[in-house]
Specification:
about 150 residues; alpha+beta; minor pseudopilin epsh fold; four-stranded antiparallel sheet; 8 strands; about 25% strand
């Protein structure tokens, strides 16, 4: 292999990398959104199972990128069970949901939490922003795109 052949192959690799960069940016944004959606989903499942296990009220609070699960057996002195932060600049709507000892939301409340990408990006057909839904019976689901089909 000569130096000229090596330089040509490096130039071709650089051109292909530049052509793939926009797709990789969307892939990375979608991956980060889905990862953070799964974080909230897992915290909801954890809170639901803890409420059943402890036979008491357990609250999930999403506030400014922090997801906190607390045991509300004594409302004046809640016990923090788990705290997780969203990563990579992904934002989620603030929400609070209490699970009863039966694993259902208290008073059959429903919850809807939509995620949005970091600053500078917006939800579109290329960047799919997930949404978490909890219905009154306690079913929890993570939709792949809240802007399109997450009702």
């Amino acid at each position: 292999m000569t130096l000229i052949e090596l330089m040509v192959s490096l130039a071709i690799a650089a051109i292909l990398t530049m052509a793939a960069a926009p797709s990789f940016k969307d892939y990375l944004a979608n991956s980060r959104l889905r990862e953070n959606g799964n974080v909230i989903y897992m915290q909801m499942l954890f809170a639901q199972s803890e409420a059943i296990k402890r036979n008491t009220t357990v609250r999930v609070a999403v506030d400014n990128g922090e997801v906190e699960v607390t045991d509300r057996n004594d409302p004046d002195n809640p016990v923090v069970l788990k705290t997780t932060n969203l990563t990579h600049g992904v934002a989620a709507e603030d929400a609070t949901l209490d699970f009863s000892g039966e694993g259902r939301p208290v008073d059959f409340a429903t919850a809807s939490i939509d995620l949005s990408p970091p600053t500078g990006l917006s939800c579109s057909t290329e960047i799919r922003c997930p949404g978490l839904r909890v219905d009154g019976g306690g079913a929890i689901r993570l939709c792949s795109d809240h802007t399109n089909n997450c009702d």
